[in-house]
UniProtKB/TrEMBL annotation:
Cell location: Membrane
Organism: Ruegeria sediminis
Bilayer topology annotation: Multi-pass membrane protein
Main location: membrane
Name listed for the protein in its UniProt record: EamA family transporter
Pfam families named among the record's database cross-references: EamA
Alphabetically ordered keywords of this record: Membrane, Transmembrane, Transmembrane helix
Domain of life: Bacteria
Organism lineage string: Bacteria, Pseudomonadati, Pseudomonadota, Alphaproteobacteria, Rhodobacterales
Amino acid sequence: MTRSTDILITALAPAVWGSTYLVTTEALPQGYPITMAVLRALPAGLLLLALTRCLPGRDWLGRAFLLGAFNFAVFWVLLFVAAYRLPGGVAATLGAVQTLIVIALARGILGTPVRAGAVLAALTGIAGIAMLLLQPGAALDPIGIAAGLGGAASMAAGTVLSRKWQPPVPALSFTAWQLTAGGLLLLPAALILEPPLPPLTAANLGGLAWLGLVGAAVTYWLWFRGVARLEPGTVSMLGMMSPVTAVVLGWAWLGQALTEVQLVGAVIVLGAVWAGQAVNAAGGARGLKPREEPA
C-alpha cells in the first residue's frame, strides 16, 4: 500500500471527528460530558476486544492504560473543560497547537529531526484555523486556555508514544486496548462527578452509536494504523481536517453562514496540511521507516 493511500485512510479519522460537535449539540443530552465520553469509549473498546479476542499481556497493560489516559481520558476531559469555558473557535485553535507539540516530542522521544518546513506548515495551519473559527472579541478564560493547551499536549504525547510503543498485534487490537483503558479510567469520574443520565431518546442512542462505533472504534483504528505507518508530524497535521469538517457540516446541516475570511482560512488549512505531508514525506525517506502491523 502506498504512502498516499495511508495518508488518505488516516485523514478519514479527523474528518469524521469533525462531526462530533454537531452530534453532541444536536443528538446528545447536555450536561454529561464525562458520561458521554465513557459511553463513547468503553462500549467501543469492549466491542473491539470481543472481535479481536486479544488482551494485553502483563508487560503491555501499564502502557495500554497510560496511552488510554493520554489519548482518551485526560484528553477528552480537558477538551470538554475547554469547550465549556471558551468559545469553540478559541478551543479548536488551541487544540491545533498539538501539531507543534508533536514535533517537539517526536524530537525528544523518537529522535525525529525538526524540519523548518514542518514547523512553518503547522504555524500556517494554526493561523488558518484561527481565521476559520475565531470570532472578534472572543473571551479568554485562563482555566479554559490551560485546559485547551493541556488537552493538546495530552493527545500529542499519546500520538508520539503510540508510535514508540508498537505491540506485536494488529492496530485493531491496539485500538481496543486503549479505548477500553480510557473508558475504564473515565468511569469513576463520571459516577462521582455527574448525576445519573435521564432516559435516553432514540436520537440520543443514535448519536452515541455514531460517536462510539464510527467516531471511536473505526476512526481510532484508522488513526493508530496511520500512527504505525507514518511519521508523527504527518499524522498530527491531518488532525487539522477536523475543524474544517465541523465548519462545513455547520454550514450544510445547521445553515450557518460562511464568511469570506472563513473560506480563506479553510483553504489555508488544507494547503498547510498538504505542505506538511510534502515536507514530512521528503524527510521520512531519511528518517523513521513505516511499520507494518502483524496480520
